[in-house]
Automatic annotation (TrEMBL):
Domain of life per record: Bacteria
SUPFAM superfamilies hit by this protein: Periplasmic binding protein-like II (SSF53850)
Pfam families named in the record: SBP_bac_1
Protein name (database record): Carbohydrate ABC transporter substrate-binding protein, CUT1 family
Source lineage: Bacteria, Bacillati, Bacillota, Bacilli, Bacillales
PROSITE patterns for this protein: PROKAR_LIPOPROTEIN
Organism for this UniProt entry: Gracilibacillus kekensis
């Protein structure tokens, strides 16, 4: 009898709860909105996104402010921020990718784009461009080409850069020499560097030399070639003479005294304050990106300028507009359209870009670029003007680097660039050694 009574009580409670739920549903339906205002504010219909990027504290602060602005304009969206420095960023990305936990929006670098897209980790954003969720109507093709792989758009450029050299034209004047003009050659670089060293006094040199992989890529483009084969399984150039010639330029400048010896510049990669052009140990620094000018001028406390890389007589255009960083959307994101809308806002909003202030490079939307250029500092104006100049001397960008490219770059630095700077190896030996070891790395892509 007691069990029957308990069962009856359970059934009564169950029917009571069902009755309340039905009544609530009826009230909700009769309101016409399906939810009360309080329910909406409590989070119904909320879209949640995660965004990951690398950078300095200044970049973090600016990006967080833009995220807050977007959420203020789009109260149905909640964006959680994750950020770190460059060191450790790709380890974090790899760990999240392995766990199937990539954030919806990730900052991407050109050298890793093919690797992440090739593993199916990034979404093709083309459909969102077609739908208008991602508005690229004010963006020239030059600025978005680098995000395509096999006609799929995996990344949006959020700051255009161009390969450059930094020059102190006041030091040229002190040495009694005319500044470089577009069209100067590699021979001009060698001769001018030697004269700068001779005329500027002891301990001051013409050039902080190169022999790096970035400069070699530029030299290859001038010769109509590229570092990698189309399928990424081998080096893209067949004759090692091209690398020998490139390395010989640096070897000649070191021998003539036009280039600073390695003890002057080998720690320069640690931070911008140690660049020899900042400390007035050289009048030229090779192989930088245009967006570095602002930091260089700030560290130097004096005006500096940007100039194109030397031309190769009879050669092709070596420059291209480089995506400084991209924003990509995870292929596993359940909110890809909303992620694309945020990237569109990041790209086109004047207010957002007033906050970002071209810290990642020159914005790709024409209206934004023109607005920021009008209000830029002197260094900022130089950066904008240089990218416009470089665009005149550019051709299409080469495909993204294949898997193994970071290993190739480390190999080049450690077994080509540094030994050449220290005179420990000949250009011929360096070229042969690089081909053997680089071929082993790239063969893994077969």
């Amino acid at each position: 009898m007691q069990q029957i009574w308990k069962k009856g009580m359970y059934m009564a409670v169950l029917f009571f709860i069902i009755g309340i739920l039905v009544a609530c549903s009826s009230d909700s339906d009769s309101s016409g909105s399906g939810a009360s205002e309080d329910d909406s504010e409590a989070g119904e219909g909320k879209v949640e996104l995660r965004m990951l990027w690398w950078g300095s504290q200044d970049r973090h602060d600016r990006t967080l402010e833009v995220i807050d602005l977007y959420m203020e304009e789009n109260p149905n969206v909640e964006i959680s921020a994750e950020f770190t420095g460059w060191d450790g960023y790709w380890e974090k990305m790899a760990t999240q990718a392995a766990g199937g936990n990539l954030p919806d929006i990730v900052q991407m670098d050109y050298k890793f784009l093919a690797e992440y897209a090739g593993k199916g980790l990034l979404a093709d954003l083309s459909e969102h461009v077609d739908s208008g969720a991602l508005d690229l109507s004010d963006v020239e093709d030059t600025y978005i080409g680098g995000g395509y792989i096999d006609d799929q758009l995996f990344a949006i450029n959020i700051g255009a850069n161009a390969h450059a050299i930094a020059v102190d034209n006041a030091m040229f004047e002190e040495a009694g020499l005319e500044p470089f003009e577009p069209g100067y050659t590699w021979e001009d670089l060698k001769e001018t560097s030697k004269k700068l060293s001779e005329n500027l006094g002891d301990g001051v040199y013409g050039v902080h030399p190169m022999a790096g992989v970035m400069g070699f890529k530029h030299y290859l483009r001038q010769n109509g070639q590229w570092l990698y084969s189309d399928d990424g399984t081998a080096l893209g150039y067949e004759d090692d003479q091209i690398l020998i010639d490139y390395l010989q330029i640096t070897a000649d400048m070191l021998e003539s005294g036009g280039a600073a010896p390695p003890e002057v510049f080998m720690d320069a990669d640690a931070n911008v304050e140690q660049f020899p052009i900042v400390t007035e140990d050289t009048a030229i620094t090779m192989d930088i990106h245009s967006n570095q000018l602002i930091a260089l001028e700030s560290a130097a406390g004096r005006p500096l300028d940007l100039m194109l890389q030397p031309t190769l007589e009879g050669g092709e255009l070596g420059h291209y507009i480089k995506p400084g960083q991209f924003l990509s959307v995870s292929n596993d994101s359940t909110e890809q359209e909303e992620a694309a809308k945020f990237i569109s806002f990041f790209t086109n909003s004047i207010e957002a870009n007033d906050i970002l202030n071209a810290e990642r490079g020159v914005p790709i939307a024409t209206a934004v670029r023109e607005h920021l250029k009008e209000n830029a500092s002197d260094a900022g104006k130089k950066m904008f003007e240089y990218v416009e100049l470089a665009q005149e001397y550019s051709r299409e960008i080469d495909p993204p680097d294949p898997q193994g490219a970071t290993e190739i770059e480390s190999l080049f630095e450690n077994e080509v660039q540094d030994p050449i700077h220290y005179g420990e190896i000949t250009p011929e030996e360096a070229a042969k050694n690089f081909r053997e070891k680089a071929s082993e790395i790239l063969a893994k892509n077969e």
